[in-house]
Design brief:
4 helices; globular; binds tetrahydrodeoxyuridine; 5 strands; five-stranded mixed beta sheet; Cytidine Deaminase, domain 2; alpha+beta
């Protein structure tokens, strides 16, 4: 028996609500914030393909809409052969609200997990400091 994991449970449950008729690839994401609250998101595809949004983007939008901006942990899950990594755009979105040390757990519905961090997902990240000139 594995340990209880509310972040995993939340990501797995919201994944069921994904709208993915084009890829048939449902993704769920859960974010825990500094307020110890969990926000969830799923991918929402569109017949105009580029208009689709990722699960991570949905969870981030829910967090910000609720007035929070500090990510402390991320969980992403899909029915994939190996744990599903956030896409490039979502790595940048996560970096906007989470420190480099924030854990990101990538998972499959079968129970495989890979643990990484925001910094490891986005080395050499573009940040506000790059726009500073002294
Ligand atoms: N997708 C996510 O929602 N998150 C990821 O981390 C990887 C990809 C979605 C986007 C699209 O709806 C489907 O997975 C296939 O790319």
């Amino acid at each position: 028996m594995s340990l209880p994991n509310p972040l995993r449970d939340a990501a797995k449950a919201v994944r069921e609500n994904a709208h993915a008729p084009y890829s048939n690839f449902k993704v769920g994401a859960a974010i825990r914030t500094s307020n110890d609250t969990v926000y969830v998101g799923c991918n929402v595809e569109n017949v105009a393909y580029p208009e689709g949004t990722c699960a991570e983007a949905g969870a981030i939008a829910a967090m910000v809409a609720a007035g929070e901006k500090e990510i402390e942990a991320v969980y992403v899950i899909a029915d994939s052969p190996s744990p599903v990594p956030p896409c490039g755009g979502c790595r940048q979105k996560l970096a906007e609200f989470g420190a480099g040390s924030v854990p990101v757990i990538m998972a499959t519905v079968d129970g495989a997990e890979t643990h990484t961090t925001i910094a490891d997902l986005l080395p050499g990240a573009f940040g506000a400091d790059h726009m500073e000139r002294t």
